[in-house]
């Protein structure tokens, strides 16, 4: 797992420009800046369904406070279903639809 805190000005490289397009600058500042970002998470195929991914996310968020976020590709249907199933929430889209989906941790204070 790779992660860190999001700052301002918000990055626009990689998929971050699409985060700005999807949420808008105001929501990015309110929800993501200063929050802990889960940049990458993966588990081996043989460990899927064991709760390992949930435990990793839970521990990372607990260690960093309750404000955390992540993003995924909108065609990663199993991944999106997983995040929803474990209580991660999608903020309201205030900008344009993009090919990414942003999720906020279950206890994110501004969800």
Model description:
With about 110 residues, the chain is an alpha+beta fold. The chain has a single domain (about 1-105), classed as Aminopeptidase. Helix content is about 35%, strand content about 20%. It is built from four helices and four strands; from the N terminus they run βααβαβαβ. It has helices at about 15-25, 25-30, 50-65, 75-85; strands spanning about 1-5, 35-40, 70-75, 100-105. Strands 1-2-3-4 form a four-stranded mixed sheet, sandwiched between helices. Helix 1 (about 15-25) crosses helix 2 (about 25-30). The longest helix has 13 residues, at about 50-65. The mean pLDDT is about 85.
Q: Which spans of ≥5 residues are poorly predicted at pLDDT below 50?
A: none
Fill in the CATH topology: Aminopeptidase
The secondary-structure element order is EHHEHEHE
SS elements, strand count: 4
Average pLDDT score: 87
| Global outline | globular
- Give me the CATH architecture, please: 3-Layer(aba) Sandwich
Percentage of residues in helical conformation:
25-40%
Percent in strands = 15-25%
Domains (count)? 1
Radius of gyration: 13 Å
Strand count, sense and barrel status of the largest sheet are:
4 strands, mixed
- Helical/strand content category: alpha+beta
| Text of the CATH class | Alpha Beta
Distance between the termini: 23 Å
Protein name: GNAT family N-acetyltransferase
Pfam families: Acetyltransf_7
Keywords: Transferase
GO molecular function, one term: acyltransferase activity, transferring groups other than amino-acyl groups
